[in-house]
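Intended use. Records like the one below are meant for learning the mapping from a protein sequence to its folded structure. Do not use them to infer anything beyond what is encoded.
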Amino acid sequence: MSTDFQTVVHSIGDLPPMPVVATKVLQLLQKPETNYVQLGQTISTDPAVSARLLKVANSAFFSLKRQVKTLDHAIAIVGERTLRSLVLAASLEGMKKSYGLLEKLLWEDSIGCALGCRILARRFKSADPEEAFLAGLFRHLGQIVMNYSDPESFHALMTSFYAGDGTFNAIEGRHFPYAHAVIGAAVLDKWNFSAELIQSTLHHEDVQLSTDADETLLRLVATVNLADQICARLGIGAREPNESVDVAQCPGALVLKLDQNQIDMALEEVEEVFATNRDSFFS
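Structure written out for the chain above:
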């Protein structure tokens, strides 16, 4: 699998680099002696990431009574694990060469699924909420990389998809040699992310893991698949809602053994939380 991923990465050509600030923050978080001041100094070297962290820390998502004015305070409030998620989310937004409607939808899609995964993980105790957030954030990384490496082909792909020329997976095969799930997993592998995040990206649509995969991984992937389908149904990251999506019958819902009432409540919560907090994650 590692060799296959290397082949995929080599075929991409213009691959976005792992964001410098994110790399440094991840390295610092692995050191027990790291303190909030060091983290704040590192994050402050990227004004965009700094501004977004402060904005999110002051959002309804954390429901704080006092305004957070410094990076040190923001880091102390959100905690190291949430900081990791937010820095990676802020860095992911920077992986673009231009910013138009398509890039806006890709970013909304990533954040919407990340928030959805965290909500579902907490509601159904299906996964670690922070791990689920990252799994949702990266599940369409392959599409972001496609748009970065070959924007002309990716725009043509999306134009055909919205014109109703076929399913996304069928159309992407006409424009790119590998599916977005494979490309996303290959890039995460190159960036040395965990096997769990690589597998959740690779199997976010089919939830078809190897027979020896453990239950924890299966439930994480199921959570991502469910969030993906909820986003599609609500129109998060898309031009319009897709009311034909039967969320209760998606692979993730079936693996987690959820009934229609649970699905309806999850749809309502994801829609509400995304609507309330979306501006905190956008420029």
